[in-house]
Amino acid sequence: MLENIKISNILFLDVETAPVVYQYKNLDENSRKLWDTKIRFQQTESFEEQYKKAGVYAEFAKVICISVGFFNEKIFRIKSFFGDNEKKLLQDFAFLLNKHYNSKEHLLCAHNGKEFDFPFLCRRMLINGVKLPKMLDIAGKKPWEINHLDTMELWKFGDYKSYTSLNLLANVFNIPTPKDDIDGSDVARVYWEDKDLERIAVYCQKDVITVAQLLLKFKGEQLISGENIVYI
After folding, report:
1. pLDDT-based confidence at 4, cuts 50/70/90?
2. How far is CA 158 from CA 16, 152, 153, 155, 228, in A?
3. Number of Cβ within a 10 Å radius of residue 167
C-alpha cells in the first residue's frame, strides 16, 4: 500500500498538550471529583500522583502546540501552531486542513496518531467550539474511508500486543533521536513552570521530522537531509 501513496499528499503532524490546571491541588472541587472518578479504575498510585498524567486526557488538558510538515518536491517544510490561546491555534490548524488538505488523496500521518493525536484534536476542537475539518470528521465513515496514517500501527503489522515508541524506532532505523532535549514527560513542567513554548515547539517539530523520516524508511526511500528541511 505504501508504495502507492504519494508522499507530497501527506501532512505529518505531532501534538503537544498540557493540563489545563497544572496541579491536582489546584483543581476545583467538582473537577477533582470528576478526575478521581475517571481515573479510579486505573489507579495504581494516589489520585494526586496519577494527575501527573493528566496531559493525555482531553477533558483535563489542552493543546499547546501542533507542528506539521509536508514535502514540496525534495524540500520538507515544517510549521508550528503554538500558544496559550488554544482556540486560536486549533482554528488556525483547522483552516490549514480545510484549505490545503481536504480531498480523498490527502492523508494525515502521526506516530500513535489514531490513539492520541487525532482524537485529542477532535475532542478539544469540539470543547472549544471549532468545527471539525473534513479530514478529522470521521463519524460514520468506514475504516478505509479514513485518510489517517499511523506509523506505530504500520510497525505493528497486525500485532496489537505492544506499544513501540517513536524514540525506539528512531534508534532501530538510525534516525536522529527527537528526544535530545526534553521528552513528553517534561512538557507540562516546561509549559507551566518555565513558560517556554518555543522550546516545546522545537521538540514537537523534531517529532514531526522523525515521523516523516520513519515513513520514508517504511517506503524504502532515502532520509531527508538537514539542508532540505525548511522552517516556515
Report:
1. confident
2. 27, 11, 8, 8, 34
3. 18
pLDDT digit string, tens, across residues 167-181: 999 999 999 876 677
In the predicted structure, residue 17 carries a pLDDT above the cut 90:
yes
80 in Cβ contact with 205 (< 8 Å) = yes
SS3 sequence of the chain:
CHHHCCHHHEEEEEEEEEECCCCHHHCCHHHHHHHHHHHHHHCCCCHHHHHHHHHHCCCCEEEEEEEEEEEECCEEEEEEEECCCHHHHHHHHHHHHHHHCCCCCCEEEECCCCCCHHHHHHHHHHHCCCCCCCCCCCCCCCHHHCCEEEHHHHHHCCCCCCCCCHHHHHHHCCCCCCCCCCCHHHHHHHHHHHCCHHHHHHHHHHHHHHHHHHHHHHCCCCCCCHHHEEEC
The whole-number pLDDT of residue 43 equals 62
